[in-house]
Amino acid sequence: MNTRIMKSRSEPVDRLSNLPDVLLITIISLLPFRECVSTSALSSRWRTLCHETTNISFKESEYMNRGQFVSNTDARDSFVSYMVKWVSRFQCSVIDTFEMHLSNPVGYVGDIKNLIEFAASRKVRKLVLDFSDPAWRTTRDAIWLYAVIHLPACVYALTTLEYLKLYAVEFDPSSFVSQERLKTLSIGWTTLKEGKSLLSKCHMLETLSMRYGWEVDIKKIEGRIRELVIENCNFYHKNMCSFYLPSIEIFKYAGEFLGHVFKKGNTVMKEVSLDFGVMPEYDKPTGASRFRGSHITRFLRSVRSAKTFTACPYLLQAIQECNNPGQLLDGMEAQHLVLRTRLRPKEFEGIGLLLDNCKNLEKLTIDIVPSPPSLFPMARSYYCNDPKIFWQKSYTFPCLRTSLKVVVVRNFDGGVFQLDMLKYLARTAKGLVRVLQRVEIYLRKGMDPNRMAVATAQAEMLKAFSKRAKVIVHNA
Questions:
Q1: Which of 288, 362, 296 is nearest to 328 (CA)?
Q2: DSSP secondary-structure letter at 303?
Q3: Least packed by Cβ within 10 Å: which of 25, 402, 417, 469?
């Protein structure tokens, strides 16, 4: 008896194998698809279980690195053949998720159409079709190369969709039936000439993302949307878009400023991010820049309830050029302010305006953006502000007195004015009740040894300078 007890204690117990198939299938369906498929090698019993998973995901990046995949036709043939064979063995009548990621699908249109029709026939709830090329950087890269894949008619008639992502897929928005279950819609690398037709059929939509679209013919976005992302889209005839979104919580916009406006918004927003990096640089105020600055500042006022706000270099320069910017920005409720800045003199006043009006700020992130080659020399002054003494001011922003606890600096490289601003924050904190508790500095990756030595020395200098706030330096 004791021998049997000792033997049972020494042998590992395989509890998974004691479970019924239905539970094992539920468990492996929660795994990433590639790991789910790998379970077929465990034993003969597991060999077919993965073909009953409800989540199917085919990603070229998981089968071969990018360089090999582009240059190796045999590898692409093998990947497409693998997808076709795998679904041919699928045993269930319903699936939750079907994802397919394959760049440059030329030559595989028939197989891809069959795979999409397979997903539609299984009443898929989450459908992801991404045929974009990771090498694309702008819409110009894609306009002449996309649209190899046309969305099959069976998808337009689906009423089970809850999540739909279409990248580099040509489709007719007006052909969709009413989508009463669709909550998340993500469209990219395609034309959106009739996009308003699709939005009018998505009454339950909560998340909308439009990335790198062209001929976007949408003048109004409304409904119960909680998260809206618009990234580098070319609006038809540069039309302005109005937002009627009383439930909006997250708004992220990147691209050209076209005067978009919130006609109706939420009084409590979680996050707002604005990036006008595609706008042309300018070194002196003009009538056009003042006009844009006024519109941008008014837009900020309409989203001033955001708890996290991210600003770009262009915004920091533009907001100072309108009349009474302080009055328009008054009442910003940001508790976390992210400044994506090149820390050039023409951005200083804008930085000051935001710090002055975010009176409840608890965390400040300064993300140093590399300066591109410019026709303009770094200005000695801007709006009569001498950059050499701007950060030597005795004025203390309200948040430094009452609320700011953490400052995080990313991509610090010891550039001009970076240390000046940090010294100002540390110096101001020295004479106050202990509010600012921590300054974290992350050195920029990829610097040459000499530049790295200078940046490290400056960061260490700030350590010695700051008496109250703890300074932590993170090497690249």
A1: 296
A2: T
A3: 402
